[in-house]
Structure formats: structure tokens, C-alpha cells
């Protein structure tokens, strides 16, 4: 599978919360198992589904616009014009959290649960819960 270009999707999935414990669910749409309480929650978000299906990707080889046509990510597509394969990878979602000590904005990948963060600016440690 060498040589397949990977393009990051521009469509960010919503951050959904568990209906039982209000914890953050794994990113994406469909049936998600809450990593905190084990409940299975269905994540639907019509706008995101439409955006994913209609997302326009520029072929890295010939610059033809290709429509994703599916909400699956990652997805392998073949350019209809030059036949080169490429892959759309899920968007890497980051959220901004302000350090409680120095107000510096940190960009973090949301992950379910609580974790400790070390502020790179003031070295103080604080915990973040998504
Ligand atoms: Zn839960
Ligand atoms: Zn192409
Ligand atoms: Zn800080």
C-alpha cells in the first residue's frame, strides 16, 4: 500500500456525550461504546453526515475535484480522471483549553476521561476532563 496519498478530511465530527454519564464518547458517528461507563450510544449528526458525503477532495495527482460520496473515514478513493488512489483520513480534532494558572491556550486532542496536562508555559499541572 505504498504511495497512496493521504489527505486529512476537513469535516470535524461533533464531540458527543454519553446519555448515561455525560462523559465524552469516542469521536465519530454510529454506535459508540462509552469508555467510561460501557453504555452504547448512537451518535447521529445529520449536518456532519451530509458534509462528509459531500466533501470535495482535490486529487493530489491531477487536481480534479472528487466527491467523497460516503461518510466513512478513512476511505480509499480512486480519482475518476487519472485513476490514482488516495485515502481520506479522519480529521484530527483539537480543542483549546486555557491553562488555569497562566491562561495560555493549549491545543489538545479530546479523549474520553480525565487526564493530567503539564502546561508547557508555566509548568503547572492540571487535570482536564472531556
Ligand atoms: Zn457513559
Ligand atoms: Zn486525479
Ligand atoms: Zn500555564
What does this 3D model show about the protein?
This protein is mostly beta strands. It folds into 2 domains: 5-88, no CATH class; 95-129, no CATH class. It has one helix spanning 46-53; strands at 5-8, 30-33, 40-43, 56-58, 65-67, 75-78, 85-89, 95-98, 105-108, 114-118, 125-129. The strands form 5 sheets. It has a 3-stranded mixed β-sheet with strand order 1-7-6, with no helix packed on it. Strands 2-3 form a two-stranded antiparallel sheet. The chain starts with a strand and ends with a strand. The protein binds zinc ion (3 copies). One zinc ion is lined by residues 18, 20-21, 23, 34, 36-37, 39.
Structure summary:
By secondary structure, this protein is mainly beta. The protein has one helix and eleven strands; from the N terminus they run E-E-E-H-E-E-E-E-E-E-E-E. It has two domains: 5-88, no CATH class; 95-129, no CATH class.
Secondary structure elements and pairings:
Elements (H helix, E strand, L loop, with lengths): L4 E4 L21 E4 L6 E4 L2 H8 L2 E3 L6 E3 L7 E4 L6 E5 L5 E4 L6 E4 L5 E5 L6 E5 L1
Parallel strand pairs: 1-7
Antiparallel strand pairs: 2-3, 4-5, 6-7, 8-9, 10-11
Bound molecules: zinc ion (3 copies).
The site of one zinc ion has 8 residues, from loops.
Task: From the structure above, extract its key features.
single chain, 130 residues, mainly beta, 2 domains, 3-stranded mixed β-sheet, two-stranded antiparallel ribbon, 1 helix, 11 strands, 6% helix, flat, binds zinc ion
Amino acid at each position: 500500500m505504498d504511495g497512496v496519498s493521504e489527505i486529512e478530511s476537513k469535516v470535524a465530527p461533533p464531540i458527543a456525550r454519553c446519555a448515561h454519564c455525560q462523559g465524552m464518547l469516542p469521536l465519530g458517528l454510529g454506535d459508540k461504546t462509552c469508555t467510561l461507563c460501557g453504555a452504547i450510544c448512537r451518535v447521529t449528526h445529520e449536518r456532519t453526515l451530509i458534509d462528509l458525503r459531500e466533501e470535495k477532495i482535490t486529487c493530489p495527482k491531477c487536481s480534479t475535484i472528487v466527491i467523497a460520496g460516503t461518510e466513512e473515514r478513512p476511505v480509499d478513493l480512486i480519482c475518476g480522471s487519472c485513476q490514482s488512489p488516495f485515502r481520506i483520513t479522519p480529521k484530527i480534532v483539537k480543542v483549546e483549553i486555557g491553562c488555569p494558572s497562566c491562561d495560555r491556550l493549549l491545543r489538545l486532542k479530546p479523549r474520553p476521561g480525565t487526564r493530567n496536562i503539564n502546561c508547557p508555559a508555566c509548568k503547572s499541572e492540571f487535570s482536564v476532563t472531556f
